[in-house]
């Protein structure tokens, strides 16, 4: 066997290893966030941001801390209405409790 073939096989193996580790880290991050939300009993929220009745942006799956930051900064951008929907994830179904804030 020549050296290029061996080098190619080693490179290929390292590439597969990197992709595998990346997938494991991504999956463990998702599981960690889900378990953390369940333990601390925090909810996730969907937001619908509107200016003068027109929807500007829909934001999905935000934590309470992210929601707080968005609400603090919305006056800077002229937001007139925000619809907040809490996502319940208890029995593998999604139920929503909706609250609306109009400026």
TL;DR of this structure?
This protein has two helices and four strands; from the N terminus they run H-E-E-H-E-E. With 103 residues, it is an alpha+beta fold. Strands 2-1-3-4 form a four-stranded antiparallel beta sheet.
3D structure, described in words:
The chain has 103 residues and is α+β, with helices and mostly antiparallel strands. It has 2 domains: 1-41; 43-102. Helix content is 47%, strand content 32%. The chain has 2 helices and 4 strands, in the order H-E-E-H-E-E. The protein has a 4-stranded antiparallel β-sheet with strand order 2-1-3-4. A hairpin with a 6-residue loop joins strand 3 and strand 4 (95-102). The protein is elongated, with a radius of gyration of 22 Å. The termini are far apart.
Strand order of the largest sheet: 2-1-3-4
How many strands, what sense, and barrel or not for the largest sheet? 4 strands, antiparallel
What is the averaged pLDDT score?
81
**Amount of beta strand:** 25-35%
Distance between the termini: 74 Å
> What overall form do the CA principal axes indicate?
elongated
Count of distinct strands: 4
Oligomeric form: single chain
Determine the structural class based on helices, strands and strand pairing: alpha+beta
The helix/strand order is: HEEHEE
Rg over alpha carbons? 22 Å
Please give the count of helices.
2
Helices and strands in order:
Blueprint (H helix, E strand, L loop, with lengths): L2 H38 L3 E8 L2 E9 L1 H10 L7 E8 L6 E8 L1
Antiparallel strand pairs: 1-2, 1-3, 3-4
Which labels suit this protein?
103 residues, alpha+beta, 2 domains, 2 helices
